[in-house]
Each structure stands twice: as structure tokens, then as C-alpha cells.
Amino acid sequence: MCFRIITVKNALLVMTLALSVLASAQTESTLYTFKETTSFWPQGALLEDSAGNLYGTTRAGGTYGVGTAFKMAPPAVSGGAWTLTTLYNFVPYGSGGYVPVSDLIMDSTGAFYGTTYSGGDPVCSCGVVYKLIPPATSGGAWTEQALYAFTGNNSDGRLPAAATLAMNAQGVLYGVTVRGGTWDSGVLYQLAPATGGTYTESVLYSFGDLADASTPNGPLTIDSSGALYGVTSLGGTFNNGTVYKFVPASNGLLATESLLFSFKAGSRSGSTPSGSLLFDSSGNLYGVTNDGGSGNDDGVVYKLTPARATWTQTILYIFSKASGSHPVGGLTWNPTNGALYGTTSSQNGKTTGDGSVFKLLPPTVLGGAWTESTLFQFTYATVGGFPTGTITRDPNTGTLYGTAINGGVTGCDLFCGTVWQIVNP
Questions:
Q1: Quick check: 417 and 34 in contact, CB under 8 A?
Q2: What is the pTM of this model?
Q3: Scanning 12, 225, 326, 413, which has its CA 20 to 30 A from the CA of 80?
């Protein structure tokens, strides 16, 4: 009798543990599938507000076929559907830009800022920095203000990188372009607000001189001193990309640019860095490379530790085709346990080859190895493929949100793309 009671208790314990595991297991779901008849090709990260709404852009579709800005509202009741609303249809003529490529940022008034790949200057059509102003009354129309149109002339930049703008406490915007500048290898620019809502653009730095950084392709990260950090896909000692630092001029001191690290082709260091950089509380930087790390050039996750000259690199993980490869969008923190989240864009990944969402857990002992796990593997024709943006993590629930630029539904001739979430990652 006693033996049977113990057995029942053990069985109940096992059942409880199993239910607990099931309840906490991560689950992926598609929140929205874009269509050819509305808008399609979402690119980049999603912006979440305090109410849980998500905001983003599409490169194509909309009223004029050249992209939209959209809002995703969470369901009003548990288990309900998310609702997509188009906030703005970009226009392929006039002074505004079209084909939005950057993530959105929001100011205290609820206005959005971003960049477009085309439009603006009628001769160059080199892209613009824009502001989307919310309506004065509920249900009204959003309006676009072109803050600056790139020209590519006189060392100006052209073709803004598909990367988030940075904004400091004074409302100054910073960004990078892929081309333009003195050597046509891209520039770092600022837009300073002036009276009346106008902005003044200044090219702070032209990339590409000799072994300098070249072709910036990621967003800028600002530290507490106002210094800017970013990555380039080319340039450096080995012409395989760099991590750089730019200190704006202040207090009579000249602006300075320096290379923190040069990547090497065909080595463990990785090559062609991309996406955002993350700082930890000790001042270390974390990022990804699209290539290098192994003989198959599958990419790496790396850490850079401050040093007097160039920084010291530590490889946290080397990707392989078995686990997904070629990360693009950078990394996202989980401050609770130190985990890093990211996406791979590979067409040669595990099972289906349409990209994946991965998780990296820090070692439990000093000097140990980071542990990688695949949270989700995309299937092109059903849940989308080729995720390229940085993952957005809800700070309250821990839920991950992101976009896949292609796929999502069988029969979508243009492979329209999706918005997805992962619960309990």
C-alpha cells in the first residue's frame, strides 16, 4: 500500500513537471502575413510602444507601390487576432522619399523617424531622412516631412544604409550612408534640429581612405559620453570589415575616428560584420558577422573587450549549416539571464534552409562555452523566410517579435513576408 501511494505521488510529480515544461516551452506564431494586394516585404526590426503596439515599414506595396509604415495592434481579447493598420503610404514623387529601409525610432511626441533608399533630390534620387507626424485628431492622416534629401554632391552621402537612426538627448539625429562621401564609400552624418522644425545636415566623416573603414552597413550605437560606434562591411587592415568608433567634436576638440577591430577573411574572427552592436555594463561590445568563422564562411557571434589600442576579440559562437548560418540583424539581450537572441538568414540552414531564430546562453562557469539552441526554423511557404532585422523583446513578457522579408503564404508570387512572435523563448 505504501509503495503504491509513493508511486502515485511520483506520478503526480512527474505529471506536474511535464505540464510545467509544456507551459514554458517556446511557441512561434505568425501574427500577420502580408499580401501583394496591400503591402509586402517588411524589412528590419519592429518598434514596440508602452501599450504593446508594434510599428514597422514595408519596402513595397501600399497605394503607390513603393512602401508603407504600419501599426500592429495586439488582440483586445486573449486568443484574438492582431490588427494591422497602414499609417502612411510613401509617394514616388515630390520631395519625399520612398522605399523605406530603416527601422523606425519614436520621439516623445509620438513622431517616427527613418530613412528611404530612393526619392528626395530629383536628379540623384539618393534617399531621404524623413519624419512621420501623427494626426492632430484621432483617425486623421499621418503626414511626412522630408528632413533631408541626399545629393551625393560635394562629398555628401547617398543611399542611406538599412539601419536605425540614432538620436541623442538634444534631438540630434545620426546615421550612415552606404555610398557617397569623398571616396564614395559612405559617410557618417548628423541632422541637427533648428527653429521652425527644419534640420541642418552635416557630413561628420567620409569612410574609405586607404585602410580605413569602408561601406557602413549597421546602425550607430551611442555611449554615455556621446561617442558613436558602428560596423562596416569592407575596409580595415584586411578589407573584410571593421568595428569603428567616432567621437564628435566638442569643447574645442576635433572629431576623431578610430578602428577598434579589423576582421580577417577565412579565419575564426569572422568577416563582413553586420547589424547592431550591443554594450554590456562593463563596456564590452557584442555583434555578429555574416561570413567567416569556419571554412564554410557561416558567420560568428563575437565580443570585443576594450583595450588601449585595438580591442580584443573573443568568439562566442561559430555558426554552421546545421544550426543556421549568416546572421544579419545583430543581437538582442535578455537582461534576466544574459541570453542573446538573433536570427540567421541562410538558405542552407537546418531542415528547411529558410533562416532561423537562435538563442545563446552564457557559460555557467568563467571561461566556459556559450550554448546555442535553435528556437525556431522558418519554412518559406508557410511562416516566412529570410529574417534580416534585429529581434524586438518585450521587457515585460519576454516575448520576441520580428519580421521575415519573404515567404509566408503559398501562392504569393512576390513572397510577401510576415510578422512573427515567439512566446517563452
A1: yes
A2: 0.91
A3: 413
Q: What is the CA radius of gyration of the chain?
A: 23
Identify the H or E element spanning 3: helix 2-24
Q: What is the band of 24 on the pLDDT scale with cuts at 50, 70, 90?
A: low
Nearest to 407 by CA among 383, 423, 387: 383
Cell of 65: 507601390
Q: Which of 223, 170, 230 is nearest to 204 (CA)?
A: 230
- 187 forms beta bridges with 177, 206
Helix (H) or strand (E) holding 381: helix 380-383
Q: What is the pLDDT of residue 79?
A: 83
Q: Residue 333, exposed/middle/buried by CB under 10 A (0-12, 13-18, 19+)?
A: middle
- For residue range 322-336, what is the model confidence (pLDDT) as tens digits? 778 899 889 999 999
Give me the half-sphere count of Cα atoms (radius 13 Å) on the Cβ side of residue 136: 0
One-character DSSP codes across 53-106? -EEEEEEEESTTSB-EEEEEEPPSSTT---EEEEEEE--SSSSSEEEE-SPPEE
Instruction: Locate 409 and state its grid cell.
Output: 503564404
Is residue 298 within 8 A of residue 317, CB to CB? The reply is no
d(CA 65, CA 72): 20
Cβ of 395: how many Cβ atoms within 10 Å? 10
Q: Could you report the per-residue pLDDT of 46-83, keeping only the tens digit for each? A: 999 999 999 999 999 999 999 999 999 999 998 899 99
Cα angle 64, 70, 74 (rounded to 5 degrees) comes to: 150
Query: Residue 180 to residues 113, 150, 160, 177, 360: CA-CA distances in angstroms?
Result: 21, 9, 10, 7, 37
Only one residue has cell 508557410, namely: 382
Expressed in angstroms, the distance from the first to the final Cα of the chain is: 43
Give the three-class secondary structure for 41.
strand
Cα distance between residue 367 and residue 335, in whole Å: 20
